[in-house]
Q: What sequence folds into this?
């Protein structure tokens, strides 16, 4: 049963290509590797038994640990198949836009996208909110504030 659940979650996060350069420039992930990051390991729904490094931009670092993240928060999650972080599976991106009118699917104030590598384009994912809506910290499973 658990493997079917993971398969459904993994398959559920499919979407359409991002074709809005203004949205991507306003909520850019350029230089995210220099942002504060936290490593996670283990088996979790939607990602399986993987190694994940999650980066948070400076806006997200101001999150006090309650309520919603500030508008402009960006979380970038690199998902690896190995502990050495050499076998990249996917890069998942969450951008908190609140109730702003953006040219993207918004769920719970978040826009969810992913890409296979740093060089690839992004794809929107509407259904990731099904898991993230259960997160303790306003759509995130971790409070990244200082």
A:
């Amino acid at each position: 049963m658990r493997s079917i659940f993971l398969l459904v979650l993994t398959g559920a996060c499919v979407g359409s290509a991002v074709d809005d350069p203004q949205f991507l420039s306003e909520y850019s992930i350029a230089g995210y590797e220099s942002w504060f990051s936290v490593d996670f390991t283990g088996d979790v729904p939607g990602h399986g038994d993987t190694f994940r490094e999650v980066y948070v931009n400076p806006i997200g670092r101001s999150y006090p640990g309650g309520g919603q993240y500030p508008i402009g928060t960006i979380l970038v999650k690199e998902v690896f198949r190995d502990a050495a972080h050499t076998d990249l599976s996917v890069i998942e991106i969450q951008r908190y836009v609140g109730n702003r009118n953006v040219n993207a699917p918004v769920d719970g104030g978040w826009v969810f996208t992913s890409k296979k590598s740093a060089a690839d384009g992004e794809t929107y994912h509407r259904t990731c909110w099904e898991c993230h809506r259960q997160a303790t910290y306003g759509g995130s499973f971790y409070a990244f504030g200082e």
